[in-house]
Every structure is written in structure tokens, then in C-alpha cells.
């Protein structure tokens, strides 16, 4: 069994050397690297994501455009006045004169403001849902990071080093 393990170990080392471009592997350190400092506040991460995410920025622009559509729908319901100069030659006589008019949209704008407001509300709800999904995803990843950090802190490094040194001594005695 020992010969099988030694053969398997040698085979794995040869595979590692092949994967390393033919260079021998040197294990100089038996310590785990320190964790890089990361953001400990998920809200800062969420704010940064919202400020830089292209999809979120597009949705915010759509909200602004929806607000403008509501304003346009309201403006279309206002009375319109026109004043101008017109020449009429349809009756055989040439008539020139000033023309003025007033149009009151009684039925043409009916419901357009309500439709624009409903579409705007729909966009707002979509943005809120997307932002909530983003926030939940970031919070889940942050919770996973915290769990992994606590697991790493619980991992007894000194016992590992002691086992490693004992394993080295046992291999030297052979």
C-alpha cells in the first residue's frame, strides 16, 4: 500500500510539473496567505453596484423618460390656440386674411394621462424589484463571505503546522 501511495504521489507531482510548464515545484511556505482587506459594509457595496451597473442606469433613465411622458400627456390635454395668415382661392376669388382658432380637446386626450401614469408606476415597480434582487444577491454573497471567514478563523492553524512537522519527521525517518 505504501508503494501504491508513493507511486500515486510521484504521478501527481509529475502532472503538477507538466501543468507548471515543465518547471519543478517549490513549496517554500507552509502558511496560508492572509486575507485581503475587503469591504465590510454591504450597503457601500450595494451603492457602488447601483452607481456603476449599466442595467440599473438604463432603468433610471427610463424612469426619467416616463416622467417626461406623463408631462407630455398632461400638456396634450390643454387647449391649443393658433393664429396666422391665410390665403383662400377655392371660391374663385382671392381672399387674404388673418385666421385665429382655438381647439379644446374634449375626447382626444381622454385617458392618456392615466395610461402614462400607469406605465410610469409599472416602471417604478420594475426598478424597485430589480434593485431588491440585486440587494438580496449582494447580501447573500456577503453572508457567504462572512461564513467562510468564520470557518477559516476556526480552522486551527497551529494544529495543522504541528501535523505538518510530524509528517515531515515521519518521512525523514524512513
Topology, element by element:
Elements lengths: L1 H18 L22 H11 L1 H23 L3 E9 L6 E9 L8 H43 L2 H16 L2
Antiparallel strand pairs: 1-2
Poorly predicted ranges: none
Query: Order of strands across the widest beta sheet?
Result: 1-2
Q: Major sheet, described briefly?
A: 2 strands, antiparallel
Radius of gyration computed on alpha carbons? 37 Å
Q: How many helical elements? A: 5
> Total strand count, please?
2
C-alpha geometry = rod-shaped
- State the separation between the terminal residues, measured CA to CA: 15 Å
Instruction: Average the pLDDT over all residues and give the rounded result.
Output: 84
Structural class: mainly alpha
Strand content: 5-15%
The H/E string reads: HHHEEHH
> What is the helical fraction, as a range of percent?
55-70%
Amino acid at each position: 500500500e505504501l508503494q501504491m501511495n508513493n507511486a500515486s504521489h510521484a504521478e501527481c507531482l509529475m502532472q503538477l510539473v507538466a501543468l507548471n510548464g515543465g518547471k519543478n515545484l517549490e513549496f517554500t511556505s507552509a502558511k496560508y496567505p492572509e486575507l485581503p482587506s475587503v469591504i465590510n459594509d454591504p450597503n457601500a457595496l450595494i451603492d457602488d453596484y447601483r452607481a456603476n451597473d449599466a442595467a440599473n442606469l438604463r432603468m433610471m433613465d427610463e424612469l426619467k423618460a416616463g416622467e417626461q411622458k406623463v408631462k407630455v400627456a398632461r400638456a396634450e390635454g390643454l387647449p391649443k390656440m393658433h393664429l396666422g395668415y391665410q390665403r383662400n382661392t377655392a371660391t374663385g376669388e382671392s381672399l387674404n386674411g388673418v385666421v385665429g382658432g382655438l381647439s379644446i380637446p374634449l375626447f382626444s386626450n381622454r385617458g392618456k394621462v392615466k395610461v402614462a401614469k400607469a406605465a410610469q408606476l409599472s416602471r417604478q415597480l420594475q426598478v424597485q424589484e430589480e434593485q431588491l434582487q440585486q440587494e438580496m444577491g449582494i447580501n447573500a454573497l456577503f453572508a457567504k463571505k462572512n461564513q467562510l471567514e468564520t470557518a477559516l478563523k476556526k480552522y486551527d492553524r497551529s494544529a495543522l503546522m504541528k501535523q505538518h512537522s510530524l509528517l515531515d519527521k515521519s518521512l525523514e525517518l524512513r
